[in-house]
Amino acid sequence: MNISNLLHRIFVENAYYKFFSLALTVLLYIWVLGDRDSDVTLNTSLRLAIPENMVLVNQPKSEVELTLSGRWTALERLTASNNIPPMLVELDGRQGEEILRLNESMIQLPPTLRVKSIRPSFISINMQPRQEKRVSITPRFIGELPQGYQLGQIKITPSTTSINGPSEAIAKLNTIQTEAIDLSSHRQDFATQVRLQHSSSLVRDDLQDMVQVTVEVNSLEQEKTFKNLPVMALNTTLKTTVTPSTVDITLKGPKKLIENFNPSGLLISVDMSKEENQPDGLFKKPVVISNLPRDIKLVNHYPTDFMVKTSRPATGSGQ
In the chain, what are the domains? Predict the structure, then answer.
């Protein structure tokens, strides 16, 4: 067989099958070469399994950085799925501070992958026994009542609650406060519902509903009499003479308001609208006191009735 025939048999005969085999061989080589060992760095969550009778009082990192090693295809599948398993640390319930080393046994990976490094590789743990205690509830007030008012009886429902948390924090607590209640706008009794406010996020209570606080607001009232205040006739075009021409009034209200009150802003009058079309005469009329401030009340006044004499204005002579 000459060289020409040999070359023909090698390259021409069954060329389709030979080309397919060559392509398959090349693809297989590329796949094997591409699926070599690789590394990838990613983050995953750090979960701590804490015994129910213990409380973790510090806050370790919630994430760790892992460097994984293995076949490129396995690493690609893991990162593409975005389903990286968490690192789970089973705590043994030991009290006090402890340094724990993180290792690859704390994470479940596909068998073809391994953990090359963990950052941080150590975490600090501080646990205390969980303690329960019953304490009283007290309201926390901010602001001050308006001048002339003071707090009276305060009722809280419920008045106690059970709290639990780390033993050191619970031992210091004999009472727990509510959220702030603003007093600055209250002039009368009121009730409000508020939540409890814990000094530590590790302390919890067993209440299902909010606390109702009922507050009694008392006025520091004082009475004062203002004498010889002028009385005027209103709602008439007639000439009028009011007898007596002044009145004494006694007012009651918050001490500061009464002490500083100026009666010049009051309107003290007798209403003559019904007598406008009646003949001139003498009429007995009650006094009306208006423009009292909202927190000041009229106790009494003297006299209570006044005599009003009416007359028509004089007409011109017509000259």
Answer: 37-128 (2.170.120.30), 130-219 (2.170.120.40), 221-311 (2.170.120.30)
